[in-house]
Amino acid sequence: MNAAPALNVFELPQALPLDSGQALDGAQIAYETYGELAADRSNAVLICHALTGDQYVASEHPVTGKPGWWERMVGPGKPIDTDRFYVICANVIGSCMGSTGPASTGPDGAPYAMRFPVITIRDMVRGLVALLDGLEIAQLHCVVGGSMGGMQALSLAANWPERAARVLVVASTARHSAQNIAFHEVGRQAIMADPAWGNGDYYASGASPDNGLAVARMAAHITYLSEEGLTEKFGRRLQDRSSKSFGFDADFQVESYLRYQGSGFTRRFDANSYLYITRAMDYFDLAEEHGGKLANAFAGSAARFCLVSFDTDWLYPTAESRHIVHALNAAGAKVSFVELTAPNGHDSFLLEHEQLDRVVRGFVD
Amino acid sequence: MKFYTPASTFGLRPDLAAIAKGVKPRSRVLDIGCGNGDLMDVLENDFSCDARGMELDAGLVEKCVARGLSVVQGDANADLADYPDGAFDYAILSQTLQTTSRPDLMLDQLLRVGRRAFVSFPNFAHWRTRKALVLGGRMPVTRALPVSWYETQNIHHVTVKDFRDLARAKGAVIERQWFFASSHAIAHFGANWRAEFAVFELSR
After folding, report:
1. Co-location of A73 and A20 in the same domain
2. Interface touch B66/A361, C-beta < 8 Å
3. Which of A142, B35, B88, B93 qualifies as a cystine partner to A166, CB 3.0-4.6 A?
């Protein structure tokens, strides 16, 4: 992984208290902004990124040179219109694109590695709230998140209910299921089984557990797609050959695709960050934080909520969104919900989808 | 809140206009089968209500969300059970009762989640419907029921008398009722013959 220069960095003025009981001293949060903040500071939209996302929501990624991860949604005239809204997107605590994470230097001058405290989704959001304080934004016009970003949006709404007037949650969940945890555990074990991982102390060695991280990404990537989508995209087609090799090369296009996804990922992501962030997602259970009843999490919330799911998403299926809608209804919150039809599973929220664009534009407006 | 003449329909279908005017301003309302949100929009903007909707069609939900309305995609037959008791001052079911799998259970749910309910439906005993069936000998296709028997979503046709019987059997009180023919309100006299559409306000 290449270290990325982060342009906008917010130094937390105080130690960040964590759910584990520990605190993170001298933490910093790297963020990007788009558009202009209105004089009355009322037009801020916070976009929360997913597991392997970052703050470059609508600008070129400094490592890969690729366009922002949600450029089709965020920009001038786009559904989240930067001509009207001041869009903030910050790298979460624990990640590796400029915010404090396991690859950052600890108080003793060495990288934290596995000495980095285990964090939660709520800890990430606590960091984001500190950033909002620093930017002097008392209330967001809207908080938006897909996948893990949706968890952060829900956590913000539940724990800092006065900080967002609108909450838009796409393809997400209020808790990680056994299946979600299981897939993450496969990824973590792949990283930790890589000899180059070395109990996480690989930063000085020059080697990094790229093989393990690539396998983790490959396994996870399957969960982001649908069987229908994979079949349509690859079927049983062979990769650059007319017959099977009777070996273990990437004979099939789908194998080649996954290997490409895996290796590309290792260039931009830190393996330890992957361990920490997947752990945070696995620990996420919003109801548990609120006495076991999800409706309690939203009691008295004055925010408007909108939830969107995709019919082929088997990672966070529609039933999870409905579960949240049920709780919001029980709490008397204003909620909209729509299940959209899309062929590409969980990843659909990042892809071309006109109906999603209209829902987002309509809700954020 | 604005003021309107009694004849004002807010650009709504007559049964919806009757409901809009029947709802107390500033109340909490659930519109089941809210369609593109026309009634909700009037309730929120002209009557300062807190309106929520439920709609089966994702395309219509999207339109509602784009209008700033709070609408949940769902099937009232199953999903109404998720709402707490007495969560709303009014539950509204407009021209949807006859499409539900069990209208009797639907009525129970309406009066459970709402302290009062508005129900509107096409009256199958209207003279045009009777004439089409008696003289034509075929399932009626009329102005009020324009879809053929094999395509219609109306699986439980109901008459004004049937509805009154059901309300009585459920112990519901008919607070008010409105009848319409040719898009105009008509007198209650002979409603089961004369009304194309009926609207009832119920309480329990």
Report:
1. yes
2. yes
3. A142
What residues have CB less than 8 Å from B150, skipping those under 6 apart? none
**Domain contains B177:** yes
Catalytic-residue membership of A172: no
CA-wise closest residue to A87 among A139, A143, A126, A134 = A143
pLDDT score of B136: 94
Test A338 with B67 for CB contact under 8 angstroms.
Answer: no
Q: What is the ipTM of this complex?
A: 0.87
- Separation of CA B104 from chain center: 14
Residue located via tokens 């990672």? A315
A341: nearest CA partner in chain B: B58
Do the domain assignments include residue A106?
yes
pLDDT digits 0-9 by tens, B72-96 = 999 999 999 889 899 999 999 999 9
- CB-based contact (8 Å) between B89 and chain A? no
Boundary of a domain, candidates A277, A305, A335: A277
Residue A250: inside a domain: yes
Across the interface, whether the CB atoms of B70 and A361 are under 8 A apart is answered no
Point out which residues pair with A339 in neighbouring strands: A309
* Residue reference for tokens 């970003």: A149
Note whether A150 and A226 are same-domain residues.
no
Higher pLDDT, A6 or B32: B32
Same domain, A49 and A135: yes
B141 Cβ contact list (under 8 Å, min separation 6): B132, B147, B148
Nearest residue on chain A to B71, alpha-carbon basis: A336
Is A338 close to B87, i.e. CB distance below 8 A? no
Q: Which of B185, B190, B174 is nearest to B14 (CA)?
A: B185
B66 contacts in chain A (CB < 8 Å): 358-359, 361-363, 365
* A 200-219: CB under 8 A from B: none
Which residue, of A253, A277, A301, is where some domain finishes? Answer: A277
Q: Which two tokens mark A68? A: 């922002």
Tens-digit pLDDT profile for residues B106-154: 999 999 999 999 999 999 999 999 999 999 999 999 988 999 999 999 9
Tell whether A16 and A147 lie within a shared domain.
yes
- What is the pTM assigned to this prediction? 0.93
Residue A147 lies in a domain: yes
- Annotation says A147 is catalytic: yes
Classify burial at B156, counting beta carbons within 10 Å of its beta carbon; exposed 0-12, middle 13-18, buried 19 or more: middle
Q: What angle do CA A106, A108, A109 make, to 5 degrees?
A: 70
β-pair partners for A145: A48, A169
Range of the domain at A59: 8-177+284-364
